[in-house]
Design goal:
The strands form two sheets. A seven-stranded mixed sheet has the order 1-2-3-4-5-6-7. Strands 8-9-10-11-12 form a five-stranded mixed sheet, covered by helices on one side. The chain has eight helices and twelve strands. The protein is globular and about 60 Å long. The protein is of the alpha/beta class. It has a domain of about 210 residues: Ribonuclease Z/Hydroxyacylglutathione hydrolase-like (Metallo-beta-lactamase, Chain A).
């Protein structure tokens, strides 16, 4: 199981803007693999509300330029769906917009800072990045407004992709910005969250009965995309149960796995990290509890043939 690392002649195509409802836009970055995320924005007469930024200075500046191409209204509010750098590294470029997120998101951005990962992913031109944490935080739910458009910010209720995943739900438009609770076409990732919590999150996402879902990575979709994500989580759970019985570790279990329908998903090496989380929970670890990330990431690299993981950010 390995990834194609070639940077030469790789053409991902430009990011695209999709109007998913009146004055509501998804900013989709191909191909949605490591560090290439989606963002979004809502336009009102008195200002713009953005949902997430990007991993690098260059990508975030391109996103903000795209927003200005749609509206000259000032950017007033930025929502972070969780703390990971591909969604928050560009926060500082939105100043003086107010940044809002789950309270744990703020804590982890401040705790983690801007971390580069030499040897983990292919080389990335990160740019000049600065830490900019949320200044407005909440625990369960907060309602914000873009003009007369209601945006319900809701914690998913459990560690899942991370410990601080929120969604932005537009009830009138039936649009759900799901952050990295949804990977469309990419391998889901729960190393820093919870496998059991991620399974619960699928039912909570379905309960919105959204017409449109903007995933954290991959193309805009509808709730039918949740089925494959749920099946993947159950696949990981089954592998973890078998590994526990056989008394083998995450890397060995991942190497022996038949990916089946999931072989076409990008970033398949995440299986090793997901198994680290699943085995930790089977061993009694709480959802979202700290585990050995260095070992888990090392196993993902080994599963990737001992090479840095493919990253075209």
């Amino acid at each position: 199981m390995s990834s194609d690392h070639g940077h030469d002649h790789v053409d991902l195509g430009p990011p695209r803007i999709e109007e998913v409802a009146d004055r509501v836009f998804a900013y989709v970055q191909p191909d949605g693999s490591w560090w290439i995320n989606n963002t979004g924005f809502l336009v009102a007469v008195d200002g713009v509300t953005a949902i997430d930024t990007c991993s690098t200075e260059r990508r975030t500046r391109a996103f903000l330029d795209a927003v200005r191409g749609v509206s000259e209204a000032p950017l007033r509010l930025l929502v972070n769906t969780h703390h990971h750098g591909d969604h928050t590294h560009g926060n500082y470029l939105t100043h003086p917009a107010a940044i809002v997120a789950h309270e744990r998101c703020r804590e982890l951005i401040l705790e983690t800072g801007i971390v580069h990962f030499p040897g983990v992913w292919d080389e990335v031109e990160w740019g000049d990045l600065e830490v900019a944490p949320p200044i407005i935080t909440f625990r369960e739910q907060l309602t914000v407004w873009s003009g007369d458009t209601e945006v319900e910010l809701r914690y998913i209720g459990t560690p899942a992709h991370t410990t601080n995943d929120i969604v932005a739900w537009l009830p009138e438009q039936r649009v759900l910005f799901a952050g990295d609770l949804v990977f469309n076409g990419g391998t889901p990732f729960v190393l820093m969250g919870s496998l059991t919590g991620a399974l619960e999150s699928i039912e909570r996402l379905r309960a919105y009965d959204a017409e449109v879902i903007v995933p954290g990575h991959g193309g805009v979709c509808d709730p039918s995309a949740l089925g494959r994500i749920e099946r993947y989580y159950r696949f990981v759970d089954q592998l973890a149960a078998e590994a526990e019985r056989a008394e083998v570790g995450a890397l060995e279990a991942a190497r022996e796995a038949d990916l089946g329908e999931f072989a076409e998903l990008t970033d398949s090496e995440r299986l090793a990290g997901n198994l680290h989380r699943a085995l930790a929970e089977r061993g009694g670890a709480d959802r979202g509890a700290a585990i050995d990330l260095v070992s888990a990431i090392g196993d993902m690299i080994q599963l990737n043939g001992g090479r840095p993981m493919r990253c075209l950010a």
